[in-house]
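Go through this:
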Amino acid sequence: MTVAHHKGRRLLFIPELGSRRASWNAVTTLTGGLSEIAQIASSVSATLRRFDATYDRAWVENVDATGLRAVTPDELVEVRRPVSYVGMGRYIGTVVVPTTWADPRAVWFESFNERHHYLDLLLGGAVSQMSTQSLRLEWPTADGIRVHYPDAFLLIGTRRLLVDVTTTRRVSDERAMSTFRLTSATARELGWEYQLLTEMPPQRARNLRFLRACQSAGPAVAAAWAAVSERSGWPRQLDRLAHDLADELGDWGTGLGAAWHLLATAQLHTDLDNPIRPETWIDTRQEKQVQPWRIQI
């Protein structure tokens, strides 16, 4: 798609708001207390693009909190989209996500940081639906209106999750944090969950990129790999596991591929924050890990 834009300005698919924007001083003051922020969160509305996959058409809607509670990611497509330009300082692209649509679905990311967090969230297959940049949250205040576009919206079982991916620098910015706190309070008001994520360790990002390429396998092959792995003692070092799988499946390459596939689909687990080597320990249970990139609000 070719569009006219200023460098860095996203392509917007919904009408601009004509209302006066609330000043940052007013927003940071109002979000400083629990009762005040809860009151603003309860007044939320959202502009979204609802999508009909059967007829391949989308239309703009504005919904209140009641309507928002019932929305799922597969009902939505992006309300804005990143654009590329010569000399841009970040990387944009798409990642394929689970969907109920008849056709495959891919959603946008606008930085490597976002991409890696999306791969992390998708690891293991618990996410059933995901959309990105698909909501404009709108909060009216006496000083004007404040808006925010959460980065991602996910369905995990019956749980709905909003995600924002940011940087450690922005976490120290009181203006940005006032918006994140308001988004977190809104998620609680809706009965949803919220995660604010900063930079991921580089080694974890490298591991996730590699494992992403090992997720696909035919159902029969995947079932055979899982059955073989269940007969092994745990924990096991990667090299030993690959040899055991190779003995059952016929050759070393297939055995090693099976081990990677089981890790990529979270049927087996290891510490992704460190390099994965032949001597790395693999287990069926996932140890609870510290996640310094996840900001508590």
